[in-house]
């Protein structure tokens, strides 16, 4: 606990005014004063300061009620740009975005079989490519990466698939790019994206489960990310869902990833088609090869084999969702990535499993749904991370 | 987000000074100024104010280094008293304590088969009994109770075993006792006790699992209790540990409480003795009846039947501890109540299960241990709750 100072008070009130302008298009100084309970004088001082930084601009006159019409101010989304990077997939993906997270430029580089230093170089090249496109002052670089990350130090503790251990990415990138750099686990930043852009209000509590090559989740409690003491909170991909199940890369058996990651699901799809090669599903698979798209189509048309696979996937995700709901008593569990292909049949299987595994009252209050943010959720989250750290937004 | 005010700054700094005195016996105003970075003048003003409230007193002179010797001040633990109540067990238990949580008086009333209004009357009588013993101004009444509790409103949402639904205990007790009243779930306040008096530092993260008639846990993140959106965070007694297991009072099957609460354990002890009536364990049970004490003795002497029962108990607790560790990535899991009777064999079984169920790195960093606070942990927690709410201590 530190002493409260005049400086801290001022920073707090500046953030308050900036947030108010950010969340309200076309607002007058008088409205800001009313909404924040700050004095007109304080608001005017802060607005002047924010205009000096270019974050806020005057946009014209509002309608006059009495006396002269009020001048409206607005948040200038184009005043800064952010470089946002997702190092969590098979293709490194980055974007240049404005202060509202609108994508201005995209850039991708396939990872191939690069690991260690080579993978790091690729990430470097990706940022270089975006850096060359910048047309406004840079607010910062935001990076979502696999593995536990110390977000204050910007060190990646361990990203097994990248062969990175205690990689001080903040220092390495900081030496080349002289702007603020913020790094966090990819599932954690995805949760920040859901929190900022998912329409859950200003200080939501939610869990975002991200499923792809791996599985992870990010936990947001009252608008704040819970990272955990080892920066591994929400590491649900390696929670056991089948004691004595298949071996996992982590050394344990029956982890969620062994049955519910994208590669595991494709393996199960192939096994199911081999089991019944003459079924419509089996024949389609022989003709077209195993793919998520194939499973999506057959699930949608109600094919029993596809439905059974989706049901099992939902059940396994449900085991872990039940742990999340039961431990945290958070009412919103949001799915992102591969499971969003499988609609209500998947959600229903998850809900059934949650009902069987937590207190009925808690299960009733738990909503399970799909994220609306789409495949760039980590990019959006990296943007939210930088906005949060640099401007206390949103 | 609210505006920061001069008043908020002052309150913050007053708390800071009070905390500093609370944690440091015999301290001078100059030392406080040094430790808090506040000015000597501000510290002197605040100390004078705290002395006016009776919370701080001058205790004499310290050694002079140069000039006149400094006057020492101290926290006066006897300046207020607190009434603390545990409504979570078969016997309602209360205590009168000072500002350090030292017990001055105890009072207990057996619940018998009372439910609803009769149980409420008993709680009332318990507080009345302690109220009559008070010898200093009352800081407040703290209550730990079963079931989810809205701690701000002081309403017990539902305590099934007490037959209480939406019971506004704060209002009911407030009408009779004109002092601040704070109410929370019994496992949640137990976690506050562990946090305040368990020697884990000032802002620890930990989970306290409390096992007795029922099973619950309290989650402390960075010194703050995480209550959950429905006030049911840490409701681990009803997490499923055996899909399709025994029916539970909650309507589900295979909840942790069906295999690891005290009544469930005693049932399993009896079943084991019936299975092998001629073993030393079976004969002792026939002679002395099933009891925790019997199991404790036989576990300690290494009896294989007792050890197997303890191993299963540890395994079941370990399933839930793994969910807690995997979801929260909190490094300290502390057990209170019945499991503390069974020592290392129990902890080892839990650790084994955690290792099998979470990421090896996370399992390595997770400590599982017993609370040192003992059977009055809810009383101590009710004290910590009132201190926290009324004085921002400890």
TrEMBL record, chains A, B:
Annotated InterPro entries: ATPase_NBD, ROK, ROK_cs, WH-like_DNA-bd_sf, WH_DNA-bd_sf
UniProt similarity note: Belongs to the ROK (NagC/XylR) family.
Protein name as it appears in the record: Sugar kinase
Keyword set, alphabetical order: Kinase, Transferase
UniProt entry tagged with the keyword Acetylation: no
SUPFAM superfamilies recorded: Actin-like ATPase domain, Winged helix' DNA-binding domain
Superkingdom of origin organism: Bacteria
Protein's UniProt keywords contain Kinase: yes
Organism: Geothrix limicola
GO MF entries: kinase activity
Pfam families, A to Z: HTH_24, ROK
């Amino acid at each position: 606990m530190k002493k409260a100072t005049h400086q801290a008070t001022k920073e707090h009130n500046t953030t308050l005014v900036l947030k108010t302008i950010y969340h309200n298009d076309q607002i007058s100084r008088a409205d800001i004063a009313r909404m924040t309970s700050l004095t007109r004088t304080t608001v005017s001082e802060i607005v002047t300061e924010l205009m000096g930084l270019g974050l806020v601009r005057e946009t014209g006159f509002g309608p006059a009620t009495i006396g002269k019409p009020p001048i409206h101010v607005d948040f200038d989304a184009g005043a800064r740009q952010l470089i946002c990077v997702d190092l969590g997939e098979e293709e490194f993906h980055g974007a240049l975005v404005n202060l509202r997270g609108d994508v201005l430029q995209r850039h991708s580089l396939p990872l191939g079989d690069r690991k260690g230093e080579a993978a790091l170089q690729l990430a470097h090249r990706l940022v270089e490519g975006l850096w060359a496109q910048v047309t406004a002052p840079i607010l910062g670089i935001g990076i979502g990466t696999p593995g536990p990350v110390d977000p204050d130090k910007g060190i990646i503790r361990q990203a097994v698939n990248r062969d990175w251990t205690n990689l001080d990415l903040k220092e390495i990138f900081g030496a080349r790019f002289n702007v603020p750099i913020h790094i966090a686990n990819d599932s954690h930043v995805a949760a920040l994206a859901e929190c900022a852009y998912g329409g859950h209000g200003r200080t939501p509590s939610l869990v975002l489960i991200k499923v792809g090559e791996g599985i992870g989740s990010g936990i947001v409690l009252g608008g704040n990310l819970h990272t955990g003491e080892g920066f591994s909170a929400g590491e649900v991909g390696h929670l056991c869902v089948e004691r004595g199940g298949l071996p996992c890369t982590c050394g344990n058996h029956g982890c969620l990833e062994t049955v519910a990651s994208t590669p595991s699901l494709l393996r199960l799809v192939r096994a199911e088609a081999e089991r019944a090669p003459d079924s419509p599903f089996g024949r389609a698979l022989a003709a077209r090869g195993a793919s998520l798209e194939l499973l999506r189509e057959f699930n949608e048309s109600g094919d029993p084999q596809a439905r059974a696979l989706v049901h099992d996937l939902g059940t396994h995700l449900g085991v872990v969702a039940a742990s999340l709901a039961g431990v945290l008593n958070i009412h919103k569990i949001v799915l992102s990535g591969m499971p969003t292909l499988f609609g209500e049949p998947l959600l229903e299987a998850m809900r059934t499993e949650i009902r069987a595994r937590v207190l009925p009252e808690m299960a009733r209050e738990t909503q399970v749904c799909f994220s609306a943010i789409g495949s760039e959720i980590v990019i959006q989250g990296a943007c939210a991370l930088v906005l949060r750290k640099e401007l206390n937004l949103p």
